[in-house]
Amino acid sequence: MFTGLTRQRFERDGVKLAAWSGGSGPAVMLLHGYPQTSYMWRELAPGLLPHHRVILMDLRGYGQSDAPASDGANLAYSKREMAADVAFVLDSLGVTSAHLVGHDRGGRVVHRFCLDHPDRVTSAAVLDIVPTLHMYETVDRAMAEAYYHWFFLSRGGGVPEALLGSDPETWIRSRFVGRHAPDYEFPPVAIAEYLAAFRRPGVIEATCADYRAAATIDLQHDEADRAAGRVVRQPLLVGWGTLGYVGTAFDVPDVWADYADDVRPAAIDADHYVAEENPEATLKALTSFWASS
Fold first, then answer.
1. DSSP letter string over the chain?
2. Which of 58, 66, 104, 218 is labelled catalytic?
3. pLDDT digits (tens, 9 = 90+) for 154-187
4. Which end of the chain is more exposed for a tag (fewer CB within 10 A), N or C?
5. Percentage with pLDDT > 90 across the chain
6. Residue 272 annotated in active site
Protein backbone atom coordinates (compact mmCIF):
# COMPACT_ATOMS: atom_id res chain seq x y z
CA MET A 1 0.00 0.00 0.00
CA PHE A 2 2.95 2.32 0.61
CA THR A 3 6.06 2.45 -1.56
CA GLY A 4 9.18 2.14 0.58
CA LEU A 5 7.32 0.78 3.62
CA THR A 6 7.04 -2.84 4.73
CA ARG A 7 3.85 -4.16 6.30
CA GLN A 8 4.15 -6.05 9.59
CA ARG A 9 1.76 -7.35 12.25
CA PHE A 10 2.52 -7.39 15.96
CA GLU A 11 0.40 -9.18 18.54
CA ARG A 12 -0.18 -7.61 21.95
CA ASP A 13 -2.33 -9.49 24.45
CA GLY A 14 -4.08 -11.33 21.63
CA VAL A 15 -4.71 -8.18 19.53
CA LYS A 16 -2.90 -8.09 16.18
CA LEU A 17 -1.80 -4.60 15.18
CA ALA A 18 -1.01 -3.68 11.57
CA ALA A 19 1.96 -1.39 10.97
CA TRP A 20 4.17 -0.24 8.10
CA SER A 21 7.73 0.96 8.46
CA GLY A 22 10.67 1.97 6.33
CA GLY A 23 13.43 4.50 5.83
CA SER A 24 16.18 5.54 8.24
CA GLY A 25 16.88 8.44 10.54
CA PRO A 26 14.88 9.87 13.44
CA ALA A 27 11.71 7.82 13.92
CA VAL A 28 8.30 9.32 13.13
CA MET A 29 5.09 7.50 14.15
CA LEU A 30 1.92 8.59 12.32
CA LEU A 31 -1.54 7.81 13.75
CA HIS A 32 -4.75 8.24 11.77
CA GLY A 33 -8.22 9.49 12.67
CA TYR A 34 -11.85 8.38 12.30
CA PRO A 35 -13.08 6.77 10.12
CA GLN A 36 -9.76 6.51 8.36
CA THR A 37 -6.78 4.17 8.33
CA SER A 38 -3.06 4.62 7.81
CA TYR A 39 -3.95 5.19 4.16
CA MET A 40 -4.60 8.83 5.08
CA TRP A 41 -0.81 9.40 5.19
CA ARG A 42 -0.29 8.28 1.57
CA GLU A 43 0.70 11.78 0.38
CA LEU A 44 2.75 12.67 3.44
CA ALA A 45 4.88 9.57 4.02
CA PRO A 46 6.92 9.83 0.78
CA GLY A 47 8.12 13.28 1.81
CA LEU A 48 9.31 11.96 5.16
CA LEU A 49 11.11 8.83 3.95
CA PRO A 50 14.32 10.47 2.68
CA HIS A 51 15.23 11.68 6.18
CA HIS A 52 13.23 9.63 8.67
CA ARG A 53 12.32 6.16 9.75
CA VAL A 54 8.60 6.30 9.04
CA ILE A 55 6.13 4.15 10.99
CA LEU A 56 2.42 3.98 10.27
CA MET A 57 0.00 2.07 12.46
CA ASP A 58 -3.69 1.22 12.26
CA LEU A 59 -5.22 1.80 15.68
CA ARG A 60 -6.99 -1.16 17.25
CA GLY A 61 -10.49 -1.40 15.82
CA TYR A 62 -9.48 0.34 12.59
CA GLY A 63 -8.00 -0.57 9.23
CA GLN A 64 -6.12 -3.87 9.17
CA SER A 65 -5.67 -4.12 12.94
CA ASP A 66 -7.85 -6.41 15.02
CA ALA A 67 -11.11 -5.14 16.47
CA PRO A 68 -11.38 -6.86 19.86
CA ALA A 69 -14.70 -6.95 21.68
CA SER A 70 -15.28 -4.08 24.07
CA ASP A 71 -16.28 -4.33 27.71
CA GLY A 72 -18.70 -2.54 29.98
CA ALA A 73 -16.06 -0.12 31.27
CA ASN A 74 -14.80 0.73 27.75
CA LEU A 75 -11.24 -0.07 28.85
CA ALA A 76 -10.36 -1.95 25.67
CA TYR A 77 -10.70 1.24 23.62
CA SER A 78 -9.41 3.77 26.11
CA LYS A 79 -6.71 6.04 24.76
CA ARG A 80 -4.48 4.61 27.49
CA GLU A 81 -4.84 1.14 25.95
CA MET A 82 -4.29 2.49 22.44
CA ALA A 83 -1.19 4.36 23.61
CA ALA A 84 0.08 1.09 25.10
CA ASP A 85 -0.40 -0.46 21.65
CA VAL A 86 1.78 2.28 20.17
CA ALA A 87 4.48 1.66 22.78
CA PHE A 88 4.36 -2.06 22.01
CA VAL A 89 4.77 -1.50 18.26
CA LEU A 90 7.71 0.85 18.86
CA ASP A 91 9.29 -1.74 21.16
CA SER A 92 8.75 -4.44 18.55
CA LEU A 93 10.54 -2.29 15.98
CA GLY A 94 13.39 -1.48 18.37
CA VAL A 95 12.49 2.22 18.58
CA THR A 96 13.12 3.83 21.97
CA SER A 97 11.83 7.33 21.14
CA ALA A 98 9.93 8.90 18.26
CA HIS A 99 8.31 12.01 16.90
CA LEU A 100 4.59 11.30 17.27
CA VAL A 101 2.02 12.73 14.86
CA GLY A 102 -1.70 12.15 15.24
CA HIS A 103 -4.73 13.42 13.40
CA ASP A 104 -8.22 13.41 14.91
CA ARG A 105 -8.57 10.23 17.06
CA GLY A 106 -4.88 9.55 16.50
CA GLY A 107 -4.12 12.95 17.99
CA ARG A 108 -5.95 11.95 21.16
CA VAL A 109 -3.83 8.82 21.35
CA VAL A 110 -0.71 10.97 20.93
CA HIS A 111 -1.88 13.21 23.77
CA ARG A 112 -2.37 10.22 26.06
CA PHE A 113 0.96 8.68 24.97
CA CYS A 114 2.79 11.87 25.97
CA LEU A 115 1.32 11.64 29.47
CA ASP A 116 1.74 7.90 29.97
CA HIS A 117 5.08 7.36 28.17
CA PRO A 118 6.87 10.74 28.29
CA ASP A 119 10.37 9.25 27.99
CA ARG A 120 9.43 7.72 24.63
CA VAL A 121 8.50 11.06 23.01
CA THR A 122 11.02 13.11 21.02
CA SER A 123 8.27 15.57 20.10
CA ALA A 124 4.54 15.42 19.47
CA ALA A 125 2.12 16.88 16.94
CA VAL A 126 -1.68 16.86 17.09
CA LEU A 127 -3.64 17.83 14.00
CA ASP A 128 -7.04 19.53 14.09
CA ILE A 129 -8.08 18.74 17.63
CA VAL A 130 -8.33 20.35 21.02
CA PRO A 131 -8.19 18.11 24.11
CA THR A 132 -11.10 15.75 24.70
CA LEU A 133 -11.65 17.10 28.19
CA HIS A 134 -11.90 20.67 26.90
CA MET A 135 -14.35 19.63 24.19
CA TYR A 136 -16.72 18.02 26.67
CA GLU A 137 -16.44 20.82 29.21
CA THR A 138 -17.28 23.54 26.67
CA VAL A 139 -20.09 21.88 24.70
CA ASP A 140 -22.43 24.35 23.04
CA ARG A 141 -24.88 24.18 20.17
CA ALA A 142 -22.21 24.76 17.50
CA MET A 143 -20.06 21.94 18.87
CA ALA A 144 -23.04 19.58 19.19
CA GLU A 145 -24.01 20.23 15.57
CA ALA A 146 -20.50 20.04 14.11
CA TYR A 147 -19.53 16.99 16.20
CA TYR A 148 -22.90 15.30 16.54
CA HIS A 149 -21.25 11.97 15.76
CA TRP A 150 -19.48 12.12 19.16
CA PHE A 151 -22.83 11.86 20.91
CA PHE A 152 -24.42 9.48 18.41
CA LEU A 153 -21.57 6.97 18.37
CA SER A 154 -21.23 6.95 22.14
CA ARG A 155 -24.84 5.89 22.68
CA GLY A 156 -25.33 2.40 24.10
CA GLY A 157 -27.87 -0.31 23.45
CA GLY A 158 -26.51 -1.24 20.05
CA VAL A 159 -28.38 1.61 18.31
CA PRO A 160 -25.48 3.24 16.41
CA GLU A 161 -24.08 -0.16 15.45
CA ALA A 162 -27.43 -1.25 13.99
CA LEU A 163 -27.96 1.95 12.05
CA LEU A 164 -24.43 2.15 10.67
CA GLY A 165 -24.44 -1.53 9.81
CA SER A 166 -27.57 -1.09 7.71
CA ASP A 167 -25.92 1.45 5.38
CA PRO A 168 -22.19 1.88 6.04
CA GLU A 169 -21.51 3.55 2.69
CA THR A 170 -23.85 6.46 3.34
CA TRP A 171 -22.24 6.99 6.72
CA ILE A 172 -18.67 6.87 5.44
CA ARG A 173 -19.44 9.30 2.64
CA SER A 174 -21.10 11.66 5.10
CA ARG A 175 -17.85 11.88 7.06
CA PHE A 176 -16.03 13.35 4.06
CA VAL A 177 -18.54 15.11 1.81
CA GLY A 178 -18.60 18.79 2.71
CA ARG A 179 -15.81 18.44 5.27
CA HIS A 180 -12.97 19.53 3.01
CA ALA A 181 -11.60 22.64 1.36
CA PRO A 182 -13.61 23.92 -1.62
CA ASP A 183 -10.85 23.10 -4.11
CA TYR A 184 -10.34 19.53 -2.84
CA GLU A 185 -12.24 16.31 -3.51
CA PHE A 186 -11.49 13.00 -1.83
CA PRO A 187 -10.25 10.49 -4.41
CA PRO A 188 -12.72 7.64 -4.93
CA VAL A 189 -9.94 5.17 -4.09
CA ALA A 190 -9.58 6.75 -0.64
CA ILE A 191 -13.31 6.53 0.06
CA ALA A 192 -13.25 2.91 -1.12
CA GLU A 193 -10.31 2.13 1.18
CA TYR A 194 -12.02 3.59 4.24
CA LEU A 195 -15.33 1.93 3.39
CA ALA A 196 -13.71 -1.50 2.95
CA ALA A 197 -12.02 -1.17 6.33
CA PHE A 198 -15.26 -0.01 7.96
CA ARG A 199 -17.08 -3.06 6.63
CA ARG A 200 -14.68 -5.51 8.25
CA PRO A 201 -16.33 -7.60 10.98
CA GLY A 202 -16.25 -5.89 14.36
CA VAL A 203 -15.03 -2.50 13.13
CA ILE A 204 -18.31 -0.62 13.52
CA GLU A 205 -18.67 -1.95 17.07
CA ALA A 206 -15.04 -1.14 17.85
CA THR A 207 -15.16 2.41 16.56
CA CYS A 208 -18.33 3.09 18.54
CA ALA A 209 -16.49 1.75 21.60
CA ASP A 210 -13.69 4.22 20.84
CA TYR A 211 -16.15 7.10 21.18
CA ARG A 212 -17.76 5.59 24.28
CA ALA A 213 -14.33 5.42 25.88
CA ALA A 214 -13.77 9.09 25.05
CA ALA A 215 -16.99 9.99 26.87
CA THR A 216 -16.21 7.89 29.95
CA ILE A 217 -12.89 6.33 30.93
CA ASP A 218 -10.78 8.77 28.88
CA LEU A 219 -12.34 11.71 30.73
CA GLN A 220 -11.53 10.04 34.05
CA HIS A 221 -7.90 9.65 33.02
CA ASP A 222 -7.75 13.26 31.78
CA GLU A 223 -9.33 14.61 34.96
CA ALA A 224 -6.84 12.65 37.08
CA ASP A 225 -3.94 14.12 35.09
CA ARG A 226 -5.27 17.64 35.51
CA ALA A 227 -5.73 17.17 39.25
CA ALA A 228 -2.13 15.92 39.50
CA GLY A 229 -0.76 18.75 37.36
CA ARG A 230 0.44 16.44 34.60
CA VAL A 231 0.82 18.11 31.21
CA VAL A 232 2.74 17.43 27.99
CA ARG A 233 6.36 18.37 28.68
CA GLN A 234 7.81 17.77 25.21
CA PRO A 235 7.52 20.29 22.36
CA LEU A 236 3.97 20.06 21.00
CA LEU A 237 2.94 21.20 17.54
CA VAL A 238 -0.75 22.01 17.37
CA GLY A 239 -1.90 22.21 13.76
CA TRP A 240 -5.39 23.05 12.59
CA GLY A 241 -7.31 23.57 9.39
CA THR A 242 -8.19 27.23 8.99
CA LEU A 243 -11.46 26.35 7.23
CA GLY A 244 -12.73 23.75 9.70
CA TYR A 245 -14.69 23.79 12.94
CA VAL A 246 -11.67 23.48 15.24
CA GLY A 247 -9.83 26.36 13.60
CA THR A 248 -12.84 28.68 13.62
CA ALA A 249 -14.35 27.75 16.99
CA PHE A 250 -11.25 27.72 19.19
CA ASP A 251 -8.06 29.66 19.83
CA VAL A 252 -6.22 26.37 19.39
CA PRO A 253 -2.79 27.31 20.85
CA ASP A 254 -4.44 29.05 23.81
CA VAL A 255 -6.53 25.98 24.64
CA TRP A 256 -3.54 23.66 24.43
CA ALA A 257 -1.47 25.98 26.66
CA ASP A 258 -3.40 24.58 29.63
CA TYR A 259 -2.36 21.05 28.65
CA ALA A 260 1.24 21.45 27.48
CA ASP A 261 4.36 23.43 28.44
CA ASP A 262 5.73 24.17 24.97
CA VAL A 263 3.02 24.76 22.36
CA ARG A 264 3.95 25.58 18.76
CA PRO A 265 1.09 26.70 16.45
CA ALA A 266 0.58 25.81 12.78
CA ALA A 267 -2.40 27.09 10.81
CA ILE A 268 -2.91 25.00 7.68
CA ASP A 269 -5.02 26.02 4.67
CA ALA A 270 -7.50 23.15 4.81
CA ASP A 271 -10.64 21.91 6.50
CA HIS A 272 -10.49 18.97 8.92
CA TYR A 273 -8.45 16.46 6.89
CA VAL A 274 -5.29 18.55 6.73
CA ALA A 275 -2.84 15.79 5.73
CA GLU A 276 -4.98 14.76 2.78
CA GLU A 277 -6.26 18.15 1.68
CA ASN A 278 -2.93 19.95 1.95
CA PRO A 279 -0.07 17.47 2.44
CA GLU A 280 2.54 20.00 1.32
CA ALA A 281 1.67 22.52 4.02
CA THR A 282 1.29 19.78 6.62
CA LEU A 283 4.71 18.35 5.77
CA LYS A 284 6.27 21.82 5.89
CA ALA A 285 4.73 22.50 9.30
CA LEU A 286 6.06 19.22 10.69
CA THR A 287 9.58 19.49 9.29
CA SER A 288 9.91 23.12 10.40
CA PHE A 289 8.73 22.14 13.86
CA TRP A 290 11.23 19.30 14.13
CA ALA A 291 14.06 21.53 12.91
CA SER A 292 13.31 24.06 15.65
CA SER A 293 12.68 21.61 18.49
1. --TT-EEEEEEETTEEEEEEEE--SSEEEEE--TT--GGGGTTTHHHHTTTSEEEEEPPTTSTTS------TT-GGGSHHHHHHHHHHHHHHTT-S-EEEEEETHHHHHHHHHHHH-GGGEEEEEEES---HHHHHHT--HHHHHHTHHHHHHT--TTHHHHHHHH-HHHHHHHHHTTSS-TT----HHHHHHHHHHHTSTTHHHHHHHHHHHHTTHHHHHHHHHHHHT--EEEEEEEEEETTSHHHHHS-HHHHHTTTEEEEEEEEESSSS-HHHH-HHHHHHHHHHHHHH-
2. 104
3. 998 999 999 999 999 999 999 998 788 888 999 9
4. N
5. 95
6. yes
